[in-house]
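INPUT
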Amino acid sequence: MTTRAMQEIENLRTVVIKDAWPYWLGAIMLGLANICIFIVTAAPWGVTTTFVFWGAWLYQLVGGHPETWSFFTLQPPMLQALKGGILNHGGSIMNIGIIVGAFLSAAAASQFRFKRIKAGRQVVAALAGGLLMGYGARLAFGCNVGAYFSGIASMSLHGWVFGIFIFVGAYLGSKLLVKYFM
Amino acid sequence: MAEFSLDALGEACPIPLLKVQKKWPDLKGGDVLIIHIDHSCALKNIPEWARKEGHNVEVEEVEDGVWDIYIEKTA
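OUTPUT
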């Protein structure tokens, strides 16, 4: 191979594997992924409903009985999915795919590392933020994927309402961020 | 021409960029600011901001997932 060709391959490798892809390309990829998911599973992409199942299975492991919760008893398909276990649950497979995929892309770019926690308030903020996002996502029938992205793509008004309140939340969140982390 | 450095290791976006913007008025033309980061999105938004403001930017990969960003303030 000529030096020129080697150089071109190296450049291509840097652009595809190492550098961040532009936002518009990510948006197209996400759109295509959502179309595939809709064709295969007959439902638009969602992430957080799966966390209900992960929580319920964990609760079962320690002796709890989430199958008596009205979330499951009033929704027979949900109860069926709960009984089917994690390996028969498409949403779980997709979420595991997101985690594994994110790891692989960071590892391929040689960017994977365990980061040290810099301050206790990072832990407090992460836990509080996670709980608020999880609680909010359940009340809103989804997160920024299930409610916002899939909602708008399905021509549902709730996606737009979600979008407006993302901006409100981001505005308040950035004020808190500057106040407590700068 | 002074050199300043900022430690933003362990900080998630957008904190590193906000730290740079907060420090920025302390620099005079020709001064250099070096920011240590380990969050890949800061690798995108800090150079983007600095170049848009018209300053020279260079990025050095220190080790896996750790970078130093050099920004030279134009006069």
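end of record. The CA atoms of residues 15 and 22 of chain A lie 10 Å apart.
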